[in-house]
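Notes from hallway chat w/ T.B., transcribed later so I don't forget. T.B. wanted the structure written out for a chain they're using in a teaching module, and asked if we could keep both sequence and structure tokens in one place. Agreed to drop them here.
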Amino acid sequence: MPIFTAPDGTELAYHARGEGEPLIALPGGPMTSSAYLGDLGGLTAHRTLILLDPRGTGASATPADPATYRCDRQVDDVEALRGHLGLDRTDLLAHSAAGSLALLYAARHPERVRRLALITSTPRALGLTVTDDDRRAAALLRARESWYGEAHPAYEAWLDGADLALSEFGGFFYGRWDDAARTHLAVMDAGINDEACDLFHADGAYDPPATLRALARLTAPVLVLAGELDPALAERTAALLPHAELAVQPGAGHYPWLDDPHWFVHRVNTFLRSAE
């Protein structure tokens, strides 16, 4: 698999899949290998996905300095990847926690971003976080589903700080809690670097007022895509960004490309093509 070197000397890996113009895809977690992104519901039919394994995950090396796991420190990794690919400007897609990384990249390098797609993003970089009330409101939307009665106490315990396996309440993250979702969650869970996850949002990572001022210079169109069943941050995110459009995928959770691949691919590809 292709390897490039970050400015601090850490060797980072990425996976290239599909056909068409490159689309750099940043996995969330935070600090999870890109394996769980798969082919993003078949987006590989339209784009060459450049799936980055963040430092310390997947096939990427562990950095000498764990402090470089902090979100803002990884902006240089994204810029190094763009340079390695020889792209003057890049289309960028970020899922979940990686939305903060993508926004910090866009704030620091607005001239390098052609289009930005934020997928079920949790943009702490903008001063936005999912609260427990947000999560509980989203959970209530699932109250009539067969698995809810068993999973809900575990979900509440997790919100209260209990260390539980995600599989005990995984249905709250997916539009359909079926065998495909369970398999996907296992892949996701296996790819997380727990040490790096704890450091990603470390003190000093974010300065929302400065980031928002910098993003005022961003001329690239932005897609903020939410799942209907995911805790709501998308509307607030889109309101803070210039040139942003909001899309809410019906019946989708935190991984919308699994819940309705056709809807997801059509909407994202339409956005990517609209600025050509």
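Follow-up for T.B.: The longest strand covers residues 11-18. Might be a good example for the class.
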